[in-house]
Amino acid sequence: MKNFIMAAIAGVLVLTLQNCYGQSSADHGKPAAKAPEYSHTETAPVKKSNDDWQKVLSPEVYRVARLKGTERPFTSEYEHSKEIGTFYCAVCGNPLFKSDAKYESGCGWPSFFEPISKKSIVEAADNSLGMHRIEVMCGRCKSHLGHVFDDGPPPTGLRYCINGVVLDFEKAKTAEKKFNSKKKAESGS
């Protein structure tokens, strides 16, 4: 019986490590093609099958976002980023977090203490891998983003631990320039 318990524990550990560390870094640094539904302003829900998502997402984004995978800790370009701007869902472009809600948690993934709005994310119980956690998904396309824990800083006490591979980031100045250019084009000046 003792050997069975040890084998079961070892199996769970192997599955956990495989899930956490099974990512390939081949896709890092390459701009990924965006799905036709990708928009920073559209709010309509995106309903698409995983087969359809697999056709338009990079393998790594698909694995994390649609198969509820986890990127390796300490590998995200956003983990230590101090840039000012907005983090978006890499799958559909939904605004998720402002940079002023980001903080250094030391957990190995980008961490935030609150989302942009209550509608930008959805939460669900996650009892996989023998643990009880709260999964965080994009409020628009329901892609897996990460998990939320109650060990964060004030004012919320929450830590949204998010896979960086499912985030896009736009610097505040870049967004302002795009907005001003669009406004100028619309006014005909």
From TrEMBL:
The active site is at 161 (nucleophile). Pfam families: SelR. It comes from the Bacteria. Keywords: Metal-binding, Oxidoreductase, Zinc. This is Peptide methionine sulfoxide reductase MsrB. Belongs to the MsrB Met sulfoxide reductase family. Its EC number is 1.8.4.12. It catalyses: L-methionyl-[protein] + [thioredoxin]-disulfide + H2O = L-methionyl-(R)-S-oxide-[protein] + [thioredoxin]-dithiol. InterPro entries: Met_Sox_Rdtase_MsrB, Met_Sox_Rdtase_MsrB_dom, Mss4-like_sf. NCBIfam families: peptide-methionine (R)-S-oxide reductase MsrB. It comes from Dyadobacter fermentans. GO terms for molecular function: peptide-methionine (R)-S-oxide reductase activity. Zn(2+) binds at residues 89, 92, 138, 141. Its cofactor is Zn(2+). Binds 1 zinc ion per subunit. The zinc ion is important for the structural integrity of the protein. Residues 28-50 are annotated as: Disordered. Residues 50-172 form the MsrB domain.
